[in-house]
Amino acid sequence: KNEVEQSPQNLTAQEGEFITINCSYSVGISALHWLQQHPGGGIVSLFMLSSGKKKHGRLIATINIQEKHSSLHITASHPRDSAVYICAVGYSGGGADGLTFGKGTHLIIQP
Amino acid sequence: NAGVTQTPKFQVLKTGQSMTLQCAQDMNHEYMSWYRQDPGMGLRLIHYSVGAGITDQGEVPNGYNVSRSTTEDFPLRLLSAAPSQTSVYFCASSDRGRRSPLHFGNGTRLTVT
Hints:
The complex is a heterodimer. Chain A is built from no helices and 11 strands. By secondary structure, chain A is mainly β. Chain A binds chain B through residues 4, 30-31, 33, 35, 41-45, 48, 86, 88, 90, 96-104, and chain B through 31, 33, 35, 40-45, 48, 50, 56-59, 88, 90, 92, 97-104, 106-107, 109.
């Protein structure tokens, strides 16, 4: 079974800190997604990438295809960034046309 | 645009009861999917559809039925609810499946007693 591993599982940091969340996967992929789930439960797509780096405001996502690894960075973190961040990959090849999800990283930013 | 609309937000069922979770999107997306989210586990794909009239099973399809008669709607049916189906359910849609950003509904919290 193709796995998606996220680390850390839980992260508590102070406001203003630089945050890094990691995602590793096992085989070739067609795309990798970063999602954000707020305490209210709603899920929002942050990034979809298959190579390189993307930036949106204070969020940066990178992917290294050779190492099968992606990182999500948050610069100048703020309490409103507190959420669960989920990595999901679309594996290349056949099978269900869906995504395999990591278990999420629970981030708390303290004021 | 409303995006992806899921109803109901909460539901309590007794074992053996049936119900339908509704999902509608107004973005003309071909791809729609249903996931369940359980504590300590990642989201898991139940069923998906790549267009009207086409559905297929995901990772955990047992106990659930779907149909896709229109592009907009993708209901999920529980024919005989079991306590193991207690979960939070999310509907999602996208342009091109895993190769484009997913748009999620707000979720349905289902409890089966």
